[in-house]
Write a structure and sequence with these properties.
- The protein folds into two domains: 79 residues, Orthogonal Bundle (Methyltransferase, Methionine Synthase (B12-binding Domains), Chain A, domain 1); 119 residues, Rossmann fold, CATH 3.40.50.
- Helix content is 61%, strand content 12%.
- It has ten helices and five strands; from the N terminus they run ααααβαβαβααβαβα.
- α5 links the parallel β1 and β2.
- The chain is globular, with a radius of gyration of 17 Å.
Protein backbone atom coordinates (compact mmCIF):
# COMPACT_ATOMS: atom_id res chain seq x y z
CA UNK A 1 0.00 0.00 0.00
CA UNK A 2 2.81 2.41 0.86
CA UNK A 3 5.15 1.41 -1.96
CA UNK A 4 4.56 4.62 -3.91
CA UNK A 5 5.46 6.72 -0.87
CA UNK A 6 8.52 4.57 -0.27
CA UNK A 7 9.65 5.10 -3.89
CA UNK A 8 9.00 8.82 -3.60
CA UNK A 9 11.32 9.02 -0.60
CA UNK A 10 13.98 7.11 -2.51
CA UNK A 11 13.60 9.53 -5.44
CA UNK A 12 13.82 12.52 -3.10
CA UNK A 13 10.60 14.06 -4.43
CA UNK A 14 9.68 16.33 -1.54
CA UNK A 15 6.38 17.70 -2.87
CA UNK A 16 5.07 14.29 -3.87
CA UNK A 17 6.08 12.81 -0.52
CA UNK A 18 4.12 15.55 1.23
CA UNK A 19 1.08 15.04 -1.01
CA UNK A 20 1.05 11.26 -0.58
CA UNK A 21 1.45 11.50 3.18
CA UNK A 22 -1.46 13.94 3.37
CA UNK A 23 -3.49 11.60 1.18
CA UNK A 24 -2.86 8.65 3.49
CA UNK A 25 -3.70 10.69 6.58
CA UNK A 26 -6.94 11.92 5.02
CA UNK A 27 -7.83 8.32 4.20
CA UNK A 28 -7.44 7.42 7.89
CA UNK A 29 -4.27 5.35 7.60
CA UNK A 30 -2.27 4.74 10.78
CA UNK A 31 0.56 7.31 11.15
CA UNK A 32 2.93 4.66 12.50
CA UNK A 33 2.40 2.50 9.39
CA UNK A 34 2.93 5.48 7.12
CA UNK A 35 6.20 6.17 8.93
CA UNK A 36 7.44 2.59 9.06
CA UNK A 37 6.27 1.25 5.70
CA UNK A 38 6.64 4.44 3.69
CA UNK A 39 9.22 6.86 5.05
CA UNK A 40 11.61 4.61 6.96
CA UNK A 41 11.34 1.81 4.40
CA UNK A 42 12.40 4.29 1.73
CA UNK A 43 15.34 5.58 3.77
CA UNK A 44 16.46 2.02 4.45
CA UNK A 45 16.83 1.51 0.70
CA UNK A 46 18.64 4.85 0.41
CA UNK A 47 21.08 3.77 3.13
CA UNK A 48 21.83 0.48 1.38
CA UNK A 49 22.36 2.17 -1.97
CA UNK A 50 24.60 4.81 -0.42
CA UNK A 51 26.83 2.13 1.07
CA UNK A 52 27.12 0.36 -2.28
CA UNK A 53 27.77 3.64 -4.17
CA UNK A 54 24.50 3.39 -6.11
CA UNK A 55 23.46 6.71 -4.57
CA UNK A 56 25.57 9.71 -3.62
CA UNK A 57 25.40 12.34 -0.91
CA UNK A 58 23.31 14.94 -2.81
CA UNK A 59 20.69 12.26 -3.52
CA UNK A 60 20.73 11.11 0.11
CA UNK A 61 20.16 14.70 1.24
CA UNK A 62 17.19 15.02 -1.14
CA UNK A 63 15.69 11.81 0.25
CA UNK A 64 16.25 12.95 3.83
CA UNK A 65 14.63 16.30 3.06
CA UNK A 66 11.61 14.58 1.51
CA UNK A 67 11.31 12.37 4.58
CA UNK A 68 11.51 15.32 6.95
CA UNK A 69 8.79 17.22 5.08
CA UNK A 70 6.51 14.18 5.16
CA UNK A 71 7.27 13.49 8.81
CA UNK A 72 6.33 17.04 9.77
CA UNK A 73 2.82 16.22 8.55
CA UNK A 74 2.74 13.06 10.65
CA UNK A 75 4.03 14.60 13.88
CA UNK A 76 0.76 16.07 15.21
CA UNK A 77 -1.08 12.83 14.52
CA UNK A 78 1.27 10.77 16.66
CA UNK A 79 0.31 12.86 19.66
CA UNK A 80 -3.30 11.87 19.11
CA UNK A 81 -2.79 8.19 18.32
CA UNK A 82 0.35 7.08 20.17
CA UNK A 83 3.44 8.25 21.98
CA UNK A 84 6.49 7.83 19.76
CA UNK A 85 8.93 9.64 22.04
CA UNK A 86 12.00 7.44 22.36
CA UNK A 87 14.36 9.70 24.25
CA UNK A 88 16.34 12.93 24.17
CA UNK A 89 19.59 13.25 22.22
CA UNK A 90 22.17 16.05 22.25
CA UNK A 91 24.05 16.21 18.93
CA UNK A 92 27.22 18.16 18.20
CA UNK A 93 30.34 18.29 16.05
CA UNK A 94 33.45 18.29 18.24
CA UNK A 95 35.30 21.55 18.92
CA UNK A 96 37.67 22.47 16.09
CA UNK A 97 35.59 20.74 13.42
CA UNK A 98 33.05 22.53 11.23
CA UNK A 99 31.73 19.59 9.18
CA UNK A 100 28.07 18.81 9.77
CA UNK A 101 26.43 17.14 6.76
CA UNK A 102 26.57 13.67 8.31
CA UNK A 103 25.50 14.98 11.72
CA UNK A 104 22.59 16.83 10.17
CA UNK A 105 21.32 13.71 8.42
CA UNK A 106 21.61 11.69 11.64
CA UNK A 107 19.79 14.42 13.59
CA UNK A 108 17.00 14.54 11.01
CA UNK A 109 16.61 10.76 10.97
CA UNK A 110 16.60 10.51 14.77
CA UNK A 111 13.89 13.15 14.98
CA UNK A 112 11.81 11.43 12.34
CA UNK A 113 12.02 8.18 14.30
CA UNK A 114 10.72 9.69 17.54
CA UNK A 115 13.74 11.14 19.33
CA UNK A 116 13.84 14.70 20.60
CA UNK A 117 17.05 16.13 19.15
CA UNK A 118 18.95 19.13 20.48
CA UNK A 119 21.48 19.98 17.78
CA UNK A 120 24.23 22.26 19.07
CA UNK A 121 25.84 22.66 15.65
CA UNK A 122 29.55 22.60 14.86
CA UNK A 123 32.77 23.46 16.70
CA UNK A 124 31.12 22.79 20.06
CA UNK A 125 33.17 22.79 23.28
CA UNK A 126 32.74 19.70 25.46
CA UNK A 127 31.70 21.91 28.35
CA UNK A 128 28.68 23.15 26.36
CA UNK A 129 27.73 19.57 25.45
CA UNK A 130 27.82 18.54 29.10
CA UNK A 131 25.91 21.59 30.31
CA UNK A 132 23.18 21.07 27.70
CA UNK A 133 22.95 17.37 28.51
CA UNK A 134 22.51 18.16 32.21
CA UNK A 135 20.00 20.98 31.66
CA UNK A 136 17.92 18.93 29.24
CA UNK A 137 18.31 15.61 31.12
CA UNK A 138 19.35 13.96 27.86
CA UNK A 139 19.56 10.19 27.46
CA UNK A 140 22.23 10.18 24.76
CA UNK A 141 25.02 12.35 23.38
CA UNK A 142 26.04 12.04 19.75
CA UNK A 143 29.40 13.57 18.78
CA UNK A 144 30.85 13.67 15.29
CA UNK A 145 34.38 14.29 14.06
CA UNK A 146 35.17 14.40 10.35
CA UNK A 147 38.89 15.18 10.57
CA UNK A 148 41.74 12.93 11.69
CA UNK A 149 42.98 15.86 13.77
CA UNK A 150 39.73 16.48 15.63
CA UNK A 151 38.87 12.80 16.11
CA UNK A 152 41.67 12.59 18.65
CA UNK A 153 39.80 15.11 20.82
CA UNK A 154 36.96 12.62 21.22
CA UNK A 155 38.84 10.60 23.83
CA UNK A 156 39.13 13.58 26.16
CA UNK A 157 35.53 14.52 25.44
CA UNK A 158 34.21 11.07 26.36
CA UNK A 159 36.34 10.99 29.49
CA UNK A 160 35.04 14.40 30.57
CA UNK A 161 31.43 13.41 29.90
CA UNK A 162 31.88 10.24 31.94
CA UNK A 163 33.30 12.23 34.83
CA UNK A 164 30.55 14.83 34.94
CA UNK A 165 27.35 13.00 33.99
CA UNK A 166 25.50 9.95 35.23
CA UNK A 167 23.78 7.40 33.04
CA UNK A 168 24.03 9.26 29.73
CA UNK A 169 25.26 7.20 26.77
CA UNK A 170 27.78 8.46 24.21
CA UNK A 171 27.63 7.62 20.50
CA UNK A 172 30.34 8.80 18.10
CA UNK A 173 30.53 9.01 14.33
CA UNK A 174 32.53 10.39 11.44
CA UNK A 175 34.42 9.24 8.37
CA UNK A 176 37.81 8.54 10.03
CA UNK A 177 36.32 6.66 12.99
CA UNK A 178 36.06 2.89 13.48
CA UNK A 179 34.41 0.54 15.96
CA UNK A 180 37.83 -0.18 17.42
CA UNK A 181 38.55 3.50 17.95
CA UNK A 182 35.17 4.03 19.61
CA UNK A 183 35.85 1.17 22.01
CA UNK A 184 39.35 2.46 22.74
CA UNK A 185 38.12 5.93 23.77
CA UNK A 186 35.30 4.51 25.90
CA UNK A 187 32.32 5.49 23.77
CA UNK A 188 29.19 3.33 24.05
CA UNK A 189 28.91 2.92 20.30
CA UNK A 190 30.04 3.94 16.83
CA UNK A 191 27.49 4.76 14.10
CA UNK A 192 28.99 4.64 10.59
CA UNK A 193 25.78 5.94 8.98
CA UNK A 194 22.40 7.44 9.83
CA UNK A 195 20.37 4.24 9.68
CA UNK A 196 22.67 2.39 12.01
CA UNK A 197 22.70 5.46 14.25
CA UNK A 198 18.94 5.04 14.73
CA UNK A 199 19.19 1.39 15.72
CA UNK A 200 22.15 2.10 17.96
CA UNK A 201 20.36 4.98 19.69
CA UNK A 202 17.35 2.77 20.35
CA UNK A 203 19.59 0.04 21.75
CA UNK A 204 21.63 2.35 23.95
CA UNK A 205 18.55 4.03 25.42
CA UNK A 206 16.81 0.68 25.77
CA UNK A 207 13.87 1.17 23.39
Amino acid sequence: MFDELKDTIIDGNEQKAKALTAQFLNAGENPREILDKGLLAGMEVVGRRFKTYEMYLPEVLMSASAMKTAFNLLKPHFKKSEDIFLGKVVMATIEGDVHDIGKNIVSMMLECCGFEVIDLGVDVPVRKIIETCTEETADLIGISALLTTTMMALEGAVRMIRGETTGVKVMVGGAPLTHEFAEKIGADGFAPDALRAINMAKGLIGK
